[in-house]
Amino acid sequence: MAGLTAPLLGLEKKSLREQALSALRTAITSGELEPGRHLVETELSEMLQISRGTLREALRQLEQEGLLSAGPRGRLSVRHLDEKEIRDIYSVRAALESLAARTLCELPDRQQVTDSLHKAIDAMDAAAGGSLEGRIESDLEFHRTLCRLTGNETLLHSWESLEGSIRMSIMFAGLEKGVSNMSVDRHKDIVAAIDTGDAALARKTILEHMDTAAANLVA
Amino acid sequence: MAGLTAPLLGLEKKSLREQALSALRTAITSGELEPGRHLVETELSEMLQISRGTLREALRQLEQEGLLSAGPRGRLSVRHLDEKEIRDIYSVRAALESLAARTLCELPDRQQVTDSLHKAIDAMDAAAGGSLEGRIESDLEFHRTLCRLTGNETLLHSWESLEGSIRMSIMFAGLEKGVSNMSVDRHKDIVAAIDTGDAALARKTILEHMDTAAANLVA
DNA sequence: CTACTCCCGACTGTAGACAGTCGACTTATG
DNA sequence: CATAAGTCGACTGTCTACAGTCGGGAGTAG
């Protein structure tokens, strides 16, 4: 039954909380729930067909991810980003990813690392002709992989906490501006820098990449 | 009534969720809830005298802060840190705070910044002879101030998300080891570096500070 | 004595209901 | 007519109750 085990390994049993979390995150970062919009718990729980208690747990997490901002009396609304905040988000992102790049440079065996990164770039290549959403996804996947490969769970977690804000930044700036940051070549430069093992170079490459990206978004 | 307004500005109206959050965070970072300990919702809600729903919202946030880890079927337990994780946490912390230092160096008017930092150092001085807890608090307050002064809310938020893990690291290593990192002089060096406006120097000073701190903790 | 099965207790996932509070609209009053 | 008081509706904060699921111990067959 070797061939049968694969589809039998765990049925999709995500809790309603997690499902609600994904659904809301997508709705916000896609702009379906526009920035500034007031979120009413009773309304949302009815739309999602879940109880308020379950919903509130999900909202709490989105709040901490920076996708929602709390007003008086616990009123939640979709966060609105201005240009300074986008630059700030990208500063932090740059700091995290430059740490990732530096860390990867110091790894003894970088072969697997660059292999994985090249695969991620291939995925970007494949998505290059496709939808804007697909290109964004493959781009973010590349950068998430960068963090994951370090083996530093805290780093990965911090980056993922920022991911929602990054997506909002792209949406806020407009998807067209966002994808202009996703040139495959620029990402190859990053991998090449890591491949040399030169931590300072890798850091510099990432910082420049992020600087350009932020500049493009707020332009 | 000028003298009377101060105590009348807003009655302490923290929600039960926030109170529970503080109480649990303190209990965990103080070691009252030892690492690995299983947290049972019904038990905790009875101890804190709040409903499970309210408690769950607080637990969810602690989970995201990295103070709790989730087992199978949503069982939560107090996270246990090994030495690698402590180093990882301090790597991320170093990346964030070096960004803070760099940012502060680029500020046009650094006078207020260094003033605030000197005040924070004075507080450390005052606490130097006191309890271990007091010294830790004033140390963390210094570093939090460093992030706050940048005006980068995302940076501050990311740092605060890490704060719980930092406190756990100190507790895990033992408070005595922790306070050995809190020499007032070493912090004066940081402020001095920022004062020069030399971003590279400030960054280097912070990175070394964190490197030493992490090394002390896992020693 | 071993292994397998069944049942019970414990705990989390989820739902629904009640209570308190604030804003907006209405009404009374000078 | 303008201002202040009163009233209504909406929404969040909180609690209690119910359902589902897993782990472990008792019981039984081989």
Backbone structural class of chain A: mainly alpha
Which sequence of SSEs, written as H and E, runs from N to C of chain A? HHEHHEEHHHHHHH
Shape of chain A: elongated
Estimate what percentage of residues of chain A fall within beta strands.
Answer: under 5%
Largest interface, with counts of residues having CB < 8 Å to the other chain, equals: A-B, 29 and 29 residues
Q: Quick one: how many beta strands of chain A? A: 3
Spatially, the strands of the biggest sheet of chain A line up as 1-3-2
Number of helices of chain A: 11
Q: Kindly report the average pLDDT value of chain A.
A: 90
Oligomeric state: homodimer
Unreliable segments of 5+ consecutive residues of chain A = 1-10
Radius of gyration of chain A from the CA trace? 19 Å
Biggest β-sheet strands, sense, barrel of chain A: 3 strands, antiparallel
Terminus-to-terminus distance of chain A:
57 Å
Helicity of chain A, as a percent range: over 70%
Features:
homodimer, 219 residues, mainly alpha, three-stranded antiparallel sheet, 11 helices, elongated, disordered N terminus, DNA-binding
Give a brief description.
With 219 residues, chain A is mainly alpha-helical. Helices cover 71% and strands 4% of the residues of chain A. In chain A, a hairpin with a 5-residue loop joins β2 (68-70) and β3 (76-78).
